[in-house]
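Extended Data, panel c. Modelled sequence:
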Amino acid sequence: MTLIKICGITSAQDALEIAGLRVDMIGLVFAESSRRVSSETASEITAALRALDSCPAVAGVFVNEDPQTINKIAQECRLDIVQLSGDESWDSCREIAYPVIMAVHITPSMQAGDIIEHIKQGMEQAKRPLLCLLDSREGHKYGGTGRSFSREIAGEVSAAFPVIIAGGLSPENVGGLVGRVRPLGVDVSSGVETGGRKDMAKIRSLIKIVRSLEDPTDMSRDFIEKYLLKGEQNVTR
């Protein structure tokens, strides 16, 4: 199955409603953003989710934050995963005491081969299990721009590494991406919002489209559980 991550959740009410739609992961933004949450709000969200019989994994999104601060917030807020979405070095991943998603920012000048080599070298430096998230880069904005990048590049990189694709995804275009690229997962934020707030009708539509295109033999969820959350390295998708 294709991992679905809904990012930029700002309330326990939205988190619970989204959890009921059976997404795999939600993202809480701790960096400068219109969707930024305080540690108090994040703790309220995770507490509400933990009361469920089954809940999505919770990722905290950080940008150029000190690793010790990240670990402290992750522990206090009961996060499952840390997403590094700034200019963090791959070496710094080793200082994070939680599973890591590393954002790789794609600019128009980048070629697929360069990105693949960058990820390969980065993973060698990190020396730990992690996943990469491909997102667009616009000026000083680290993701959440609503802008997409070349789907041809996304396809080439996804064929080389299991990656999550972000950047400009919505119910209108996610089907084309999943059908063509077959990524490990998709990460959506502004594309399922109306007036700056999460739109449950759009989220339902996106989930329905993604699930309809899934390959029943794809073990992406099993890969996430074993590789990312449990740190098992000899796992194939």
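The chain has eight helices and eleven strands. This feature is highlighted in the accompanying rendering.
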